[in-house]
Automatic annotation (TrEMBL), chain A:
GO terms for biological process: D-methionine transmembrane transport. It holds the Pfam family BPD_transp_1. GO terms for cellular component: plasma membrane. Keywords: Cell membrane, Membrane, Transmembrane, Transmembrane helix, Transport. Residues 13-207 form the ABC transmembrane type-1 domain. The chain crosses the membrane at residues 20-41, 62-83, 89-108, 151-176, 188-207. It is a multi-pass membrane protein. This is ABC-type transporter, integral membrane subunit. It is found in: Cell membrane. PANTHER family: ABC TRANSPORTER PERMEASE, D-METHIONINE TRANSPORT SYSTEM PERMEASE PROTEIN METI-RELATED. Belongs to the binding-protein-dependent transport system permease family. CysTW subfamily.
Automatic annotation (TrEMBL), chain B:
SMART domains: AAA. It holds the Pfam family ABC_tran. Belongs to the ABC transporter superfamily. The keyword Magnesium does not apply. Keywords: Amino-acid transport, ATP-binding, Cell membrane, Membrane, Nucleotide-binding, Translocase, Transport. This is D-methionine transport system ATP-binding protein. GO terms for molecular function: ATP binding; ATP hydrolysis activity. InterPro entries: AAA+_ATPase, ABC_transporter-like_ATP-bd, ABC_transporter-like_CS, MetN_ABC, MetN_ABC_transporter-like, P-loop_NTPase. Gene3D superfamilies: P-loop containing nucleotide triphosphate hydrolases. Residues 1-235 form the ABC transporter domain. The keyword Signal does not apply.
Amino acid sequence: MNDDVLELLFTGLGETLYMVLLSTLIALILGLPLGIILVATEKGNILESPRINKVLGTIINVVRSFPSIILIVVLLPLARFIVGTTLGATAAIVPLSIGAAPFIARIIENSLKEVSFGKIEAAMAIGANPLTIITKVLIPEALPSLIRGLTIAVIGITGMTAVAGAIGAGGLGSLAIRFGYMRYRDDIMLATIITLVILVQGVQLAGDYLATYINRKRYKFD
Amino acid sequence: MSKMYITPSSKIVALENVNLQIQQGDIFGIIGFSGAGKSTLIRCLNRLEEPDSGKIVIAGQEITAMNKKELQLARRKIGMIFQQFNLLDAKTVFENVAFPLQVSNYPKKQIKTRVEEILELVGLANKSKAYPLQLSGGQKQRVGIARALSNEPSVLLSDEATSALDPQTTYSILELLKDINQKLGLTIVLITHELDVLKHICNHMAVIEHGKIVETGVVEKFFLNPESDTAKRFISILQGFQEKRVYKEGEGI
C-alpha cells in the first residue's frame, strides 16, 4: 500500500468518525427524551397518557420502517435547507441523526423498562415528582443497560454512515464503493473493511468496559 | 372505602366497605390469606392504588381529597417499606436514606447528620458507603426502614416487610420496628400473613377476608377468641403444629 492509499484511508476514517460522533450525539439528544416519554406515558406509569404514547409510538414506527438509504434520500432536501448542501459528511449528519433518533428512542425505552416498577413506586411513596423519578431513579438505575444499548446504536449508526457514503457523504463507506468496488481496488476494499472492523470492535469494547465498570462498582464486596 | 379492579372479563371487588380507625402510636396489624386484599388496602392508604370511593384520613389530612402536588407533599410524611425492599441499586446506603430528604429539599449539612443518626438507629452506621447489592436481605430491609424514617413520618406503612426474610432476620426486623415505635412514638400499620408478626409486635389487629374486614380488636382476642373464618383457620393451623410437636416431644399437656 502506498502513501496515497493511506491518506485516503485516514481521510475516510476521519469523516466516518465525524459523522458517527455528531449523528450519535444529535440522535441521542432527540431520542433520549422520546424514549423517556415512551416509558413515562405508558399505562400505569408516572405520566400515564395513552394518547401521547400511541401517537409517539406510531411516529417512531413509521420513521423506522424506512430502509436507511431511502430515509437518507428523502431527508436530503432537509439537509440542503439546514446545511446548504446535500454533499459531504456534514450534510449527511442531518438524515443520519433523524434516522437514528427513533432507533435510539426504542433502545432507551427498552433499557428503562428493565427498572423494576417497585423502585419507581418507592420513589413515588416518598413524594418524589415525575422529573425527580426520571433523573434520580430511572436513568441511574438503568445506566449499565443504557450504555450497552448505546453501544448497539453507535455500531448501527456506523453502518448507516457507510450507506450514506454510497450517495455522496464521504467516509469509509464511500471509499469502499468508489475505489474498492467501482475501480476493482481489492487492497482498498480490504483496508476499509479492516478499519471498520477495528472501529466496531473498539466501540463494543469501550461500551462493555464502561457498563461492566458501573456494575462492578455496585456489586463489589470489600 | 372500596376498591374495584376492572378486568376485561369481569369486575373484581378487591376491597368492600372497609372501615378502620387506627390510633396514633399504635402498631396495627392487618392479617389475611393471599388474595384477601391486604396489599391493596395498605397501598390505598398513600394512594399507590386509587380507591374508587371512600375517604382516607392520615394525621388529620384527607389523603383522598388531595391533588397530585398535595399528595406528593403528604407522602413525604408517610413512610413505606416493601416486601422486595425496592432500594435503588445505583445509590449507596447513605444516598438511599438521603433520597427522601433531598426530595424534601433539606440543606446538605442537615441531611448528613440526619442520615448518620438514622443509620445508627437501624444498626447500619458502618455500611453507609456500601451498595444495596452488597447487603443481606435483613440489612436491605434495615436500609428500607431507614429510608422510610429519614423524613420523620407520622406513620409507617409496612407492606409484607418481613415476608422475604428468614425467621431469625424477621425477628430482628420486628424488634427494630418495635424499638422505633417505642422510641419515636411512630404509628405503624402493617399487613402480613404471618401469625408471628402479629403476635410479636402488634397491639391491635384487623382480619381481612375477600376484601372485607371481618374482625377487629386487640391481638390477644385473635388468639383467644377467634370469630372469623380466616382467624379460626390461622389458629387451627397453629394448633395443628403445636399438637404435632407435643406428640413428637412426648411432653403431654
